[in-house]
Design brief:
The chain has two domains: 22-56; 59-139. 41% of the residues lie in helices and 17% in strands. The chain is built from three helices and six strands. A hairpin with a 7-residue loop joins strand 3 and strand 4. It starts with 12 loop residues before the first strand and ends with a helix.
């Protein structure tokens, strides 16, 4: 007689999630869960890093929060001005309606950084439309 003992051989089972495999739990679902947790952690770190950058900004850049490249460009201009570069060297121009008390520096195509002429203190980042209407309000 031949002894047909099957030692160490396990059959595939179907798990409640619908996957099949060998073992006590579904390895596919565990791998997916770990990947989702890692992605969530990476998103949280990225969000915290953006918040830390925003907290360090001298002015509010939230109007371009949906445009990260414009935020980088605005931060670059703010850093250059803080380090001693005059806004006029960055294509800045005086605002005529403010009696040359304000400077406007273009950020991208449709946004402007507004600086005080005397102190070179940044005042606000405005869209081009808001800038057209707010130049009078900023000078007052």
């Amino acid at each position: 007689m031949v002894n047909h003992q099957l030692k160490g051989i396990t059959m595939k089972r179907h798990f409640p999630c619908g996957h099949s495999g060998k073992g006590k739990y579904c390895h596919t679902c565990v791998a997916i869960t770990k990947a989702k947790e890692a992605e969530a952690l990476a998103r949280q770190h990225k969000r915290l890093a953006r918040q830390a950058l925003a907290a360090a900004d001298p002015i509010d850049l939230s109007c371009v929060a949906h445009l990260p490249s414009l935020q980088k460009e605005a931060r670059s201009i703010l850093t250059k001005v803080r380090d001693g570069t005059h806004p006029c060297a960055l294509k800045g121009k005086p605002i005529r309606s403010s009696n040359r008390q304000l400077l406007s520096v273009p950020v991208g195509y449709a946004y402007r950084l507004v600086f005080d002429c005397e102190s070179l203190r940044p005042l606000r980042l405005l869209s081009h439309e808001a800038y057209n209407h707010a130049a009078d309000a900023l000078s007052g």
